[in-house]
Design brief:
This protein is mainly α and about 290 residues long. It has one domain (about 15-265). It is about 70% helix and about 0% strand. It is built from twelve helices and no strands. α2 (about 20-35) packs antiparallel against α3, α7 packs antiparallel against α9 and α7 (about 125-140) runs parallel beside α10 (about 185-210). The protein is globular. About 30% of the residues are buried. It is a multi-pass membrane protein. Its main location: membrane. It is found in: Cell membrane. This is Cytochrome c oxidase assembly factor CtaG.
């Protein structure tokens, strides 16, 4: 049995432009600049925010708008667009928000002991990585997926849950509060690698399935004549993996260079210590550290 679709063929211009999503993104950008500008002094330790962080937050809102406007408009007819939408919303947007929002905005969340206990549990690297990837895989089980896609309430609830767990998943890597940052750059690189591995099976099953997995898309109007429903399904699995590889590649690179900087700084400190020891040693004595 085929499901009802929101759009027949191509969505109209209004749906494509999604003014609601645009206004929401602009409102969040405005609020962000009010908080980090005039309201900064209301926060404990509210200091100036770096330009690259501002760029990060605005980029997150651009990603949100592209995903929620043009991409989402086609997501009910094309499974590949649905997967690109999910990749942008859960894999690309949260790390940019975490990177762009200063520590002093997040700290009040951790003031309450009960809230802190809950947050510490859900942002534990092993819990966070298993929860997000587990829920994303369960969401794409055909029976569940078809049910969610035809029920607005279930869809809303499932996307809120996935969004929250996406932030938990990204927290160990992009932790915006320095004193709560549990992982060093090398551990973060291992975490991202593991995260990529965990998402691969779901993408592979979708990309290489010989049958249509989702009834919802089987009855969808064909948007592009050369793209059959089955090819669109395969493309969806590949698209999510590609977006994931790009995002994780950037974050891996960022942490790799952070690790290199850390190593150089450590070498410099060791060298200074050695020089100080040599200078402190009385004339004519030999430092056994250097034999």
């Amino acid at each position: 049995m085929h499901q009802h679709h929101q759009f027949d063929g191509h969505p109209d211009v209004w749906t494509l432009l999604s003014p609601g999503s645009l206004l929401f993104a602009l409102a969040l950008i405005a609020l962000y600049f009010v908080v980090i500008g005039p309201w900064r002094h209301r926060f404990e330790g509210g200091e100036e925010v770096a330009g690259k962080q501002k760029f990060g937050f605005v980029s997150a809102m651009v990603v949100y708008y592209i995903a929620s406007g043009p991409i989402y408009a086609y997501s009910h007819n094309l499974f590949s667009f649905h997967m690109i939408w999910m990749s942008l919303i859960y894999l690309a947007m949260p790390p940019l928000i975490l990177y762009g929002t200063p520590a002093w905005v997040w700290r009040p969340l951790w003031k309450n002991a009960k809230v802190t206990r809950v947050l510490r549990f859900f942002t534990h690297p092993l819990i966070a990585i298993a929860l997000f990837n587990g829920l994303l895989s369960v969401y794409h089980l055909p029976v569940l997926f078809d049910t969610i896609m035809t029920n607005a309430l279930l869809m809303g609830v499932s996307h809120v849950i996935l969004m929250i767990t996406a932030f938990f998943m990204w927290w160990p890597v992009m932790c915006p509060i320095p004193e709560l940052d549990r992982l060093n750059p090398l551990q973060k690189m291992a975490y991202i690698f593991a995260d990529g591995v965990l998402l691969t099976p779901a993408c592979a099953i979708i990309a290489f399935s010989h049958v249509m997995l989702y009834d919802f898309y089987q009855g969808a109007p064909q948007v592009f004549m050369s793209l059959t429903a089955h090819n669109d399904q395969s493309l969806g699995g590949v698209a999510m993996k590609i977006v994931q590889e790009i995002v994780y590649g950037i974050v891996l690179g960022y942490n790799f260079f952070a690790w290199v900087r850390q190593q150089k700084e450590q070498d410099r400190l060791d060298q200074e210590e050695d020089e100080n020891e040599r200078e402190a040693a009385p004339e004519g004595t030999v430092s056994y550290n250097h034999i």
